[in-house]
């Protein structure tokens, strides 16, 4: 038996290229609703879907040709059928959206971002609304079970909650839905995400119980809206506390939160931590997340790094919940 090494290498490179195209196609197909429909029905006529949605039919079929090229669907003309790997991809679709939609410009500009002379000021851009859209589902895939378990261990009644780095407001609205007597404040630095949050709170009938405020969580000052907040949550942005990779910055932010929210009795921090996995064994999302944050100059602390700063920051560590599904996820319960 002989093996054509050149042909084998050619197909391997083609697979690499086609996988990159498929990542963009997954993000787009989810955003237009095609992935959801295929997941429900198991088959989809892309021409019919395009006609119903006012989409270009050739381009819509092309999205699924990309998915077919990597074995996620079988395509016969315009009709596609989900294959065995489709459901696992569907479960992870938000990671692809984070990469291909939310972080597209960052990765597009890698050559410029790598240059030290350019790494000053606002030297990169991402789509904050797309990041918030993806992170809503990333939260459900990774943090949600451990988060609600931690919420169940909150031993005191609360009526006021604030979500730091709230994004599109999904977590805050879920808390208010489960606790009818509560009101909540969401705080985020990204105005587009806050616009989405306000619209969705209004659609959910929660506008009268929510307030979404523009602010930098790293430099919050006391204000009347914060004075009686009893419960704080902060998810998928805690690593920003560690500006320049310095633990004293994390300590300072934790102390500032104690001052800004004097009535807070519990703080739940859920975030990614730096992993230490072999390069060839990285799960979905890890490589993109860690490379992306290296490009942005954002330090990712380890669990041990975090546990070393809580006491100095004015908080008592009650419990560490290790999830570690893709990016070393963890939830810290602080009192």
UniProtKB/TrEMBL annotation:
<dbReference type="GO" id="GO:0008168">
    <property type="term" value="F:methyltransferase activity"/>
</dbReference>
<keyword id="KW-0808">Transferase</keyword>
<keyword id="KW-0489">Methyltransferase</keyword>
<dbReference type="InterPro" id="IPR029063">
    <property type="entry name" value="SAM-dependent_MTases_sf"/>
</dbReference>
<dbReference type="GO" id="GO:0032259">
    <property type="term" value="P:methylation"/>
</dbReference>
<feature type="domain" description="Methyltransferase">
    <location>
        <begin position="161"/>
        <end position="257"/>
    </location>
</feature>
<dbReference type="InterPro" id="IPR036388">
    <property type="entry name" value="WH-like_DNA-bd_sf"/>
</dbReference>
<dbReference type="InterPro" id="IPR041698">
    <property type="entry name" value="Methyltransf_25"/>
</dbReference>
<dbReference type="Pfam" id="PF13649">
    <property type="entry name" value="Methyltransf_25"/>
</dbReference>
<dbReference type="InterPro" id="IPR036390">
    <property type="entry name" value="WH_DNA-bd_sf"/>
</dbReference>
<protein>
    <submittedName>
        <fullName>SAM-dependent methyltransferase</fullName>
        <ecNumber>2.1.1.-</ecNumber>
    </submittedName>
</protein>
